[in-house]
Specification:
33% of the residues lie in helices and 21% in strands. The N terminus is likely disordered.
Length: 339
C-alpha cells in the first residue's frame, strides 16, 4: 500500500499505475500501521486468554463521571433533562463487575477526555484496562512485564521508587520535603502557581511532570512506584508507611504509558476521596461531578483485594512503531487538526 511523506494512506486506483492524492475522507495512519495495531490487539487478547482473564464490555455513557480534578469530562443533556457523561475510564463499571464476582477481567475500549490536542493527545482514545484479584501493585507490575514481553515491547524495563528517582535526579526526596521547600524548588525551575490553589498536591504534581520525568532517560521504560500519599488517587496507602501510596506508572522518557493501583476497597474511604476531589474541582473553578452511587454501593457490598491498571493503546503502539504523532496510529481523529 502506497503512502505519502506525511504518513497518510493512499487509496490505489486499479485503473492507474500511479497513486492518487490522499483523499480528505481517507484514513490518517498508513495501512501497515493499522495492520500492526490489529495484530497488537490480537496479541493482547491472546495473553489475557492464556492467563485466565475475562474480556468484558461496559457502557461508555453513564449518569456519573470522573471527579478527578485533573480531568475534564464530556457531558451531554438528554431530552428528559438528565445529564450524561462520556467515561474517562471504564474503572467504576469494571469494579462493579469485580464486586459481583467476575474474577480477573480486562477491557479494550474507547475513553474520552477534554484535553489540549497534541501529537500525543486526542479527545477520544483507546484504553486497555485490567484487574487482577489478589495482587498488589508489585504483582501487577510483574503481570505487566509478562504482557509487554508477549507483545514484543522494544524497551528494557526498570523499576524504581518515586523517592529514589527524586533523590537521584532532583537531589532531594520531594515526597518527604517540607511544603515551602517544594514551592522554592518549583519556582526556581520556572513553576508559576495560583497562590489560592497552591498546596502539596499541586507542587508534587508539578515537580513530577515538569522536573522529574524530563530528567529520565528517553530510551528506557521505567516503572515508578510508591508515590507520595498526596498523589494516591485511588490507590491504597502503604501499611506502616502512610506517606506512600501503592501506585505505579510506566513511563518512557516523559511519556506516561500506564497508571496502576493497589486498589482502595473501603467504600467510606473511596467516598471521602471523591468528595475531596469535588472540593478541589470547585476551588479550581471546575464543575462538580455527581458521585457514582452504584460504584460506591458495589464497594459497600465488598470489592475483593485487587490491583488494576490502565494502559494507553495508541501511546503503546507509537512507541513500538517509533512514531511521534498519534495520527500515525489511528484511522481517524475528530477532524480538529485538519485545515
Amino acid at each position: 500500500m502506497s503512502e505519502d511523506l506525511g504518513g497518510r494512506s493512499l487509496i490505489p486506483d486499479p485503473g492507474c499505475s500511479s497513486p492518487l492524492s490522499p483523499p480528505r475522507w481517507g484514513p490518517l495512519a498508513p495501512w501497515h500501521h493499522l495492520r500492526r495495531r490489529a495484530r497488537l490487539l490480537a496479541d493482547v487478547r491472546a495473553y489475557f486468554s492464556r492467563t485466565g482473564a475475562l474480556e468484558v464490555e461496559t457502557p461508555l455513557l453513564a449518569l456519573a463521571g470522573s471527579t478527578d480534578p485533573a480531568l475534564a469530562s464530556f457531558s451531554l443533556t438528554a431530552h428528559d433533562g438528565r445529564q450524561w457523561w462520556l467515561q474517562t475510564s471504564p474503572e467504576f463499571a469494571m469494579k462493579r463487575l469485580l464486586a459481583a464476582g467476575s474474577g480477573d477481567i480486562f477491557q479494550i475500549c474507547h475513553a474520552f477526555r477534554q484535553e489540549e490536542q497534541s501529537r500525543r493527545h486526542q479527545s477520544e482514545f483507546t484504553l486497555l484496562e485490567w484487574y487482577r484479584v489478589g495482587l498488589d501493585h508489585h504483582g501487577l507490575m510483574d503481570d505487566m512485564v509478562q504482557l509487554l514481553s508477549a507483545i514484543g515491547f522494544p524497551f528494557p524495563l526498570e523499576r524504581h521508587a518515586w523517592s529514589v528517582l527524586s533523590l537521584q535526579y532532583l537531589g532531594f526526596d520531594a515526597a518527604l520535603a517540607e511544603t515551602h521547600v517544594l514551592a522554592d524548588f518549583a519556582r526556581a525551575r520556572g513553576g508559576v502557581f495560583q497562590e489560592a490553589l497552591l498546596d502539596r498536591t499541586v507542587l508534587l504534581d508539578w515537580i513530577y511532570g515538569c522536573a522529574l520525568l524530563p530528567s529520565l532517560p528517553a530510551d528506557r521504560a521505567v516503572f515508578i512506584h510508591d508515590f507520595p500519599c498526596e498523589q494516591a488517587a485511588y490507590a491504597r496507602l502503604a501499611p506502616g508507611a502512610p506517606w506512600l501510596a501503592e501506585r505505579f506508572e510506566l513511563v518512557v522518557g516523559e511519556t506516561e504509558l500506564a497508571n496502576g493501583f493497589h486498589e482502595v476497597i473501603d467504600a467510606r474511604e473511596q467516598r471521602a476521596r471523591h468528595v475531596l476531589e469535588n472540593t478541589r474541582r470547585r476551588a479550581a473553578g471546575r464543575p462538580e461531578v455527581p458521585l457514582d452511587e452504584d460504584f460506591l454501593a458495589a464497594l459497600e457490598s465488598g470489592l475483593p483485594p485487587c490491583a488494576g491498571v490502565a494502559l494507553g493503546v495508541e501511546r503503546l503502539l507509537m512507541l513500538m512503531l517509533g512514531v511521534d504523532d498519534i495520527r500515525q496510529v489511528v484511522a481517524f481523529d475528530d477532524g480538529s487538526a485538519r485545515d
